[in-house]
Amino acid sequence: MPTTRWIGIPGAKKPSRRARAENKPIFLSIGYATCHWCHVMERESFEDEDVAALMRSTVVAIKVDREERPDLDMLYMAFCQAMTGQGGWPLNVILTPEGQPFFAATYLPKESGFGHTGLKELLGHLYMAWSTNHQAVIGSASQLLEAVRVQLETPAGTADLDAASLETADTALTASFDAARGGFGGAPKFPSPHNLLFLLREWRRTGRTPLRDMVTSTLTAMRAGGIWDHVGFGFHRYATDDRWFLPHFEKMLYDQALLAMAYTEGYLATGRPELRQTTLDIFEYVRRDLTSPDGLFYSAEDADSEGVEGKFYVWTAAEIRELLPPEEAGLFLAAYGLTEEGNWVSEATGQVTGANIPFLPVPLDRFAADRGLAPEAVAATLARCRGILLAAREKRVRPLCDDKVLTDWNGLMVAALAKAARAFGDAALAERASCAAAKLLAALGRPSGRLLHRLRQDEAAIPGLLDDYAFLAWGLIELYQTTFDPKLLSAATELAQTLLEHFAMPQGGFSLSADDAEALIVRQRVFFDAAIPSGNSVAFFVLTTIFRLTGRQEFRDAATALSRAAAAQVAEHTASVSFLLCGLSQLLAPAAEVTVTGRTDAPDSKALLAALAGRYLPEVTVTVDPAMVRPSPGSAGPEPVRRLSPRRTPCWPCCTLSSPKVQGGKPPGPKHSPLDPLMPLTWLRLHDVLFSKGFPTGSAPGGSRRRSLRPGVRPPVGRHAGGAEAGVAFGAGESKQRADETQATRPSLRPRPARGPGSRPGAASSCRRPCPGCPRRTGPGR
């Protein structure tokens, strides 16, 4: 099929000009390199000479890679779903020369049959309609455009998101949860890791254990199922059944990144070592098969090899016996559910195929116990078998590797590596993340501060989209929280600033494309998550986190506008915006902002950072401020200014430690936005954050159980035994409190009684170190 690749701004104009000059409609086919049915349609139709000749005479044909132009894909997918009630790939859309669609379908066979219109018949009908009823076709396209525009261009909202939205999402996900097999809904079953990340945050916020249990059972079931590659590691895209057994065999970079985050956070929330090991195994697969020589990450691996889906991944029992010693072969066959006749049935014929997909019918510890074997010995034997089989599998014809490097998906992998490096204390993972981040900024960043979307064979192209800026900023934030390199925070802040300047919509939220990008028929603003979180969902997390790290008000304002713009859609489809609700859940949980005021390589600082990183604390942000380090006795130089962050400095043990909010009640006065200053952190709550696996929030500070790292050890606040100072600035919103003064006494955990007439209940009558404008300031100037 002769094609014009419509993936750059200059090339976008040529097909339209040609279509107008020849008075032909545009046939737009959108797919991607690892799409099974895209390849089927390509072989059946686009490579067929008769079909090619018919297309040349009736339409202007264009092929688009949806991963290079997700804005076009989302736009025309919305039209396809509006016209047909469904969507998928390949996505085939017939357009007027102006780009307005009037027909859409997914896979089209070459010939008609079984109730489906074939491509050849469709092209004949299309030619007749365009030739004889041209104006009616144009009118129909205009009407459809207006109808879909109303759906895509959502009005501005005014309401704030609140805890009710979180509760609604909790209920919806709980109702769709498959208690027997893990996951949500039925077949086909997608991993949807952002749902798992949300539920973990809700467990942290509410203390409801069933929310965490849904996550751990899903993570365990996926690792045991055929959706996991038990020989070479990594997750396939989704399961075609409801028990995670029969996968669609393609492997996507974004799945590896998001699932690695889910397994990392699952490990932090539960301490289960198998979840940590799964994360490391994902990264091993990515290192081996999806990493470029310069440390960036390829997009995907195809499902097909030699024209057969899954052929690279399946095994016969005879192959296993040929490759492994007899005793080990028998153990492997039994452990991974392989049979002589094959363990799966062909969807086309309904017959067993003789091929096997490795999976775990029972957990390995139970498998070992049933045979009277030591679990460690069984695990070692199976690991040795997997190594032999992997080496043999590498000699097969490999599936196609889509070797383009996408900024947004690479940003996800940087975030996953950085998060795991912090959680596991793994310097090698941090180095991989740092290398990838540096290469991304060098290869796909422009001197103007703008990004490009795609890199392939040293060619960087396509103006960056919302997801590129938001996802890469997320990766840089996670990496900053791991290495504390201030350049990373600066780079993330610059990307967020570009979002505000070029992607912000007047009614709140962000458009998929920049204001100076190629103009499409509709400027889209998408809040719903799909296989990956939406750009707006990630932008909400990025903006609120950067606000907490830098105190820059414009980011808080943009996040507030985004949340209000999304409120109506959140109310209607709460479970479809789970990653946006991740950010909201973190905001509504008691927040802590920790500033380490010493060198990160000092033993006491390292101990504090390890204590924070080794626990599931999604509501905590950590910064390291070298300017706050006090010079050692006898050293030259003045004592640095006592500040907490780039924000204003509050007075030292001022109002927040003795406010009624400390008791866990609602703050007095009108209802607050989720972005207003949150519940402040007292000494006791800081102890909860550092020394407990989780605490039910909203209760009085004394009501949560605490567990020290060592008996009798107090929270690591103030001067440490080594002489270095690793103070902690903590609190919420715009207010932080310091407790790193060497002569500070433990602040009261209860509101101080009012002193003197007219004083507020629970307020101190004076401040030890009042700041200008403090309502409790007394004496001269007040």
Task: Compile the SSE list and pairings.
Blueprint: E1 4-5, H1 9-22, E2 26-31, H2 36-46, H3 49-58, E3 60-65, H4 70-84, E4 91-95, E5 101-105, H5 119-132, H6 134-152, H7 163-176, H8 193-206, H9 209-224, E6 238-239, E7 247-248, E8 251-252, H10 253-270, H11 273-289, E9 300-301, E10 304-305, E11 308-309, H12 317-323, H13 326-335, H14 364-370, H15 375-393, E12 401-402, E13 405-406, H16 407-424, H17 427-444, E14 452-456, E15 459-463, H18 466-483, H19 486-502, H20 535-550, H21 553-572, H22 578-588, E16 592-596, H23 603-613, E17 620-624, H24 683-691, E18 729-732, E19 735-738
Could you list some keywords that capture this structure?
782 residues; alpha+beta; five-stranded mixed β-sheet; three-stranded antiparallel β-sheet; 19 strands; disordered N terminus; disordered C terminus
Summarize the structure in words.
This protein has 782 residues and is an alpha+beta fold. The strands form seven sheets. It has a five-stranded mixed β-sheet with strand order 1-3-2-4-5, with helices on both faces. Strands 8-9-12 form a three-stranded antiparallel β-sheet. Helix 9 (209-224) packs across helix 10, helix 13 (326-335) packs across helix 15 (375-393) and helix 20 (535-550) runs parallel beside helix 22 (578-588). The termini are far apart.
Rg on CA atoms, Å: 29 Å
Unreliable residue stretches: 1-12, 628-689, 691-782
Major sheet description: 5 strands, mixed
Mean pLDDT: 80
Distance between the termini: 81 Å
How many helices? The count is 24
Strand content of the residues, in percent? 5-15%
Helix percentage: 40-55%
Please give the number of β-strands.
19
